[in-house]
């Protein structure tokens, strides 16, 4: 281990030694015949490969400091996030809507918030500097992906499973928006719960990862807190707007102008 | 008059029926013959073609929520979205009276929906639809889960509503009920509706 200007740099042996407790846990699962050792080892190896690969990729991207390279990296992240949103849906929209609706809500709100933060708040030079843009986009996208996929899943599930209840409201003369309001509210709550829990717990129950990382890198705690607040506000806003957009766009697609439910617009 | 003009949807051949105002029309047919599809098409719950008129109101000319306030529908299996029965009723002075008419106690509004039997759900769904004061009410098997005494009670209520000028379209399997309630009759088979005597 070597002390540098602002943080304690880790050697590869330090990293390997940190796996001691995980190794012990693995040994215990073998001793207790829990049948988990193989999957635990594979998961750990996969994590090492993924993180080392992204470390080298980021090293290349950061040294390039080229807007197009940053955009390409953001596009790759977006494709994986969009795929994850789709995979987490119990019932997907039929046709191109499945790609268009949830992922679009996530990408549009995420990109807007990122550009806002980079050009007006952080203002790195250049504004698209990958050292700032990519970690921020990653955090925003990861949380937005969770929220949007949970919210979308909840509303499509409600439209299929609670069709009788929604139609009972339509039959009392409610519009589609009025009839679906309690179900939309539940979908919004479901989508927002993880980020609201994270916001409520941060600083009391848990120290957020980014803030912890900055403190370990030698950033004064109050400065790290400011960064953390900025990112939490951005994430909270993007999740809220992304879930709202995705849920209401889904309601628009899964109903029609005659205020009828259209579950036939879901894939089989 | 409730009038349909070539009302059609998949598995339902074009339907042309005329139900005079203040009368009870009865639709009979086997399970799967298209009775429910017909009712859903009249209230515009599924995509369909053709047109429906109530008096001089053309269905396509008014927003669907407005149409459904004029022409109500109680499905065979009612839907419930809140925990307590009372949350499903719009505030209305005649709710206690309607509950009494369907043989339910006034405190049923405080009951949890999860505690209701299928017969209680059926009667409460009817009371809920009547509380919204539609001019026409379509009822899909309104007494299928009821015993004889409560069935009589519900039939008496429907006849009373007809007396007050309401127009009703009742879908039933029960020939006795059709005879007791009906003024105009239709039979439906494999999606084809024909007037019956």
Entry summary:
The complex is a heterodimer of chains A (268) and B (197). Chain A has 268 residues and is mainly alpha-helical. In chain A, 75% of the residues lie in helices and 1% in strands.
Element layout with pairings:
The complex is a heterodimer of chains A (268) and B (197).
Chain A: E1 2-3, E2 8-9, H1 12-18, H2 20-31, H3 37-64, H4 67-87, H5 97-100, H6 102-122, H7 130-161, H8 163-171, H9 176-201, H10 209-216, H11 221-253
Antiparallel strand pairs in A: 1-2
Chain B: E1 2-9, E2 12-15, E3 18-19, E4 24-28, H1 35-42, E5 49-54, E6 57-58, H2 64-70, E7 71-74, H3 95-101, H4 118-131, E8 136-140, H5 148-163, E9 167-172, H6 175-181, E10 184-189, E11 192-196
Parallel strand pairs in B: 4-9, 4-10, 7-8, 8-9
Antiparallel strand pairs in B: 1-2, 1-3, 1-5, 5-6, 10-11
Low-confidence stretches of chain A: none
Q: Please state the overall shape of chain A, judged from the principal axes of the Cα atoms.
A: globular
**What would you say the CATH architecture of chain B is?**
3-Layer(aba) Sandwich
Q: Average pLDDT of chain B, to the nearest integer?
A: 93
What is the gyration radius of chain A calculated from CA atoms? Answer: 22 Å
Q: Looking at the structure, what is the overall shape of chain B?
A: globular
Tally of distinct domains of chain B? 1
CATH class of chain B: Alpha Beta
- pLDDT average of chain A, as an integer? 90
How much is the radius of gyration of chain B in Å? 16 Å
Please state roughly what percent of the residues of chain B sit in beta strands, choosing from under 5%, 5-15%, 15-25%, 25-35%, 35-45% or over 45%. Answer: 25-35%
- Structural class call of chain B reads alpha/beta
Whole-number total of structural domains of chain A: 2
